[in-house]
Amino acid sequence: EKREEKMIKFITEPTVTILSVPVFTPHPRYKLPPSVHDTEQLIAHAGKGCYDSYGEDGRSIEEHISSLVDSGHGSVLEHANVSVFIEGISRGCSHEIVRHRAGFAYSQRSTRYVDESECNVVLEPFFADLYEEYNKGEVQPIILTDYLRSLRSSLRYYRMTIENLNEYAPNTMSKHDQRKWIRGKARQLLPIAIETRMTMTANLRAWWHFFIARSSRYAEPEIRKLANLLF
Known about the structure:
Elements: H1 2-7, E1 10-11, E2 15-20, H2 38-51, H3 61-70, E3 81-90, H4 91-97, E4 104-108, E5 121-122, H5 125-135, H6 142-164, H7 175-186, E6 195-203, H8 204-214, H9 221-230
Parallel strand pairs: 1-5
Antiparallel strand pairs: 2-3, 3-6, 4-6
Helix pairs in contact: 2-3, 6-7
């Protein structure tokens, strides 16, 4: 069990890296008030086009966007897309994330193409807090002991099944297809606590809805933590 514990990294916090934000190219004729933010300029250009209110001396871009948002005119926010790379979330959390469809695109780590024998495990926030206290020298409570043992056990059976399925893989397949065949069978043993990583892209209107829904006190703790970090 000690050897297996070294193989498993327990994760208590997600990580977010911004990959892409809008780059605005000013129109040669339709001018905007000054702003250093490409995203704001893009949104303002779209919004001012609706009212034909271009001009460098008009209302500031910040005031214009605030007015659009306050009036519920969210369609202009759909022009601005932001892409992020998310690490340190559980497969269970990702199942909640991908329920957000309108305006979102996802590319996620595959348990069929990737060998998860030495995967990381994301601790649910309640257990993550217990784990952090334990690492500070506190006594490990039984409920945490059983929780971690269950996770290790699931991964142990996954590894055993991967090894045992080697003799059953159809020899008519290529080595690449055999690996997919084996992992596709064994991955049902993986706990939804295993870490997944994903690239996530959405327009700002979709992000806005995501933040409202997933930062709510009614949201699950793990996805709420992620939503606050993304915001």
